[in-house]
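Anyone up for a design puzzle?
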């Protein structure tokens, strides 16, 4: 004779855990007229190279980037100092020039090769874009072959190829210094027009919009290398430096906090790009960011660009970053860019 359990079948049932529906996704943007893979194929641009800043306080600015920020000087030429990232073969990622006023001298991108430089310069010139320096040999660390032009806002942009890399090494565990320049964000009084400009001439692909406030554009598998923020005046919004992982990013953020540089916003994690962020006031109130874990887009045409809401829940998935009021207040009081439509002295 056997006995049978009469326990409720509800208790015996192997109840599967409920599936997770995933986070709510905001609306997708209609596919671009030109497939992203085609834009990528045509694009002369490979990566973002550096930002050049001018300052009244050369020594103090270099001390900041060389010291707490974690770059190192790789050379100087008179009143100009070049700073590189330990983990990057890029000869330098920040150039600082002594000047009588704060300004952004230029932003710089890498191109595929000399032919791409020449072709881009010719196309821009034939379309009436003002060329500031014709293609030629560059007299900077790493050399190379490049040219300069003014974009729609009058921002000076350099594009170069054949640049010789500098020595670089693996970052040590806990060293917590930037591995490379991650992205540059610019302010524009006509963001949609500037997005179209960089799509057309640079072959950049739109990755996402943050409402109508910021467009994120890519030139590689990184979700964004250039972002364009809608603003009353053209200028530099911020420059972002990539740390290796979230631990090192947190250690770097903590180093800043301990030395009296509390983040203006962060640590937090964005929705668009999925990167973590800590924004700080750098020298001359230029905003600099530590970031890591930026989303990768390995398949150009599989990516669906979206319009992300600028609500706190989306702006900071972690909910740890605070309101960011200090950052917005700093941007609000930053004077309009004074270097527009001016070729840099060097
Ligand atoms: Fe950023």
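Challenge accepted. My sequence:
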């Amino acid at each position: 004779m056997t006995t049978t359990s009469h326990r409720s079948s509800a208790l015996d049932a192997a109840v599967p855990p409920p599936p997770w529906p995933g986070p709510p996704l905001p609306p997708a943007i209609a596919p671009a007229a030109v497939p992203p893979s085609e834009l990528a194929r045509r694009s002369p641009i490979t990566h973002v190279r550096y930002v050049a800043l001018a300052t009244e306080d050369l020594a103090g600015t270099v001390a900041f980037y060389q010291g707490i920020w974690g770059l190192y000087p790789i050379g100087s030429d008179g009143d100009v100092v070049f700073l590189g990232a330990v983990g990057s073969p890029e000869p330098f990622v920040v150039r600082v020039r002594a000047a009588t006023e704060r300004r952004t001298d230029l932003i710089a991108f890498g191109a595929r090769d000399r032919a791409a430089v020449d072709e881009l310069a010719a196309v821009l010139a034939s379309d009436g874009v003002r060329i500031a320096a014709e293609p030629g040999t560059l007299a900077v660390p790493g050399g190379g072959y490049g040219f300069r032009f003014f974009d729609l806002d009058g921002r000076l942009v350099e594009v170069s190829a054949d640049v010789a890399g500098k020595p670089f090494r693996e970052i040590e565990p806990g060293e917590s210094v930037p591995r490379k320049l991650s992205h540059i964000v610019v302010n524009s009084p006509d963001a949609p027009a500037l997005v179209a400009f960089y799509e057309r001439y640079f072959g950049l692909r739109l990755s996402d919009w943050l409402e109508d406030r910021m467009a994120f554009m890519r030139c590689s598998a990184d979700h964004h290398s250039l972002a364009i923020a809608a603003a009353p005046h053209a200028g530099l919004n911020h420059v972002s430096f990539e740390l290796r992982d979230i631990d090192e990013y947190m250690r770097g953020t903590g180093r800043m906090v301990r030395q009296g540089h509390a983040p203006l916003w962060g640590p937090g994690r964005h929705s668009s790009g999925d990167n973590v962020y800590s924004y700080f006031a750098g020298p001359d109130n230029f905003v600099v960011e530590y970031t890591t874990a930026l989303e990768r887009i390995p398949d150009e045409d599989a990516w669906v660009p979206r319009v992300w809401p600028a609500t706190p829940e989306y702006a900071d998935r972690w909910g740890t970053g605070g309101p960011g009021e200090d950052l917005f207040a700093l941007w609000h009081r930053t004077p309009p860019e004074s270097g527009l439509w001016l070729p840099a002295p060097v």
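A detail worth pointing out: The mean pLDDT is 95.
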